[in-house]
Amino acid sequence: MSILKYQPRLLLRDFIELFWYRCGETPTTADETKEAILPDGCAHLVINLSENAVRLFERLDNDEVTTLSGSVFCGPRSSPYAILPAASAVIGILFRPGGAFPFLPMPAEELRNIQLPVEHIFGMRAGELRDRLIAEKTARRKFVLLEMFLLRHLRQPSSLHRAVSYAIRAFETDPTQNITDVLMKIGLSERRFSRVFSEQVGLTPKQFHRVRRFQKTISSFPLGDGVDWAETALNAGYYDQAHLIHEFRTFSFVTPGTFLATRIVQRNHLPLPA
Prior knowledge:
Layout: E1 2-6, E2 16-23, E3 35-37, E4 44-48, E5 54-57, E6 65-68, E7 71-74, E8 81-83, E9 89-95, E10 115-117, H1 118-122, H2 129-135, H3 139-153, H4 162-173, H5 179-186, H6 190-201, H7 205-219, H8 229-235, H9 241-252, H10 256-261, E11 269-271
Antiparallel strand pairs: 1-2, 2-9, 3-8, 3-11, 4-7, 4-9, 5-6, 5-8, 7-10
Helix pairs in contact: 2-3, 4-7
């Protein structure tokens, strides 16, 4: 399996972190293991080019499967879900925090923790996108086609509210900052700030802060063993090691030690034990 990444053109870079394309051999039945998709507070668009279906598990602790069409928009999540990665070719878009807002015909909070067929968001003609991607012969041409699709649905190059932009930067730069720290800088009431943030980002400020702190923590892990968990917890803005473990179980269903020992090939895809 190989994963190709593509940086979008300048007009889209404020909204899109990257395009990605995974291709390789189709897993055999014996290889099929559920993968947890860990929350990152961002929206995603995922298209299965192998078959016109995406099968997912809304909860990691049961095997009740939901089958959607092959083109799915994934709203910002504050909880994990799982997939069965049986496809040999999948392409996707990773939006930046709040980056889906300028493309959506509804507030981002209406898509929180749900997955929908792409045509439910962008109209019936969006259902043709998958067929057009399959017809393109190269990964680059597929990426360009996705760019054109997004540019057609860019409602207007609108920016996030200044308070929302400031909060995202603050949480990303220093996870030890909390919502009270942010409110002191932005000049909005907590109620007004929470309303605007949820509409544009899709999560409440508290949910977003927790998820992005978790993401920053896992990206800081060393390659080897010997992690000082108490120090890691303190540096990441957790109260203590117990708080860190609790958050890991919430967002990944495993302990930090188990997470560190698991080989992750694709970002935020955590193989689950059979």
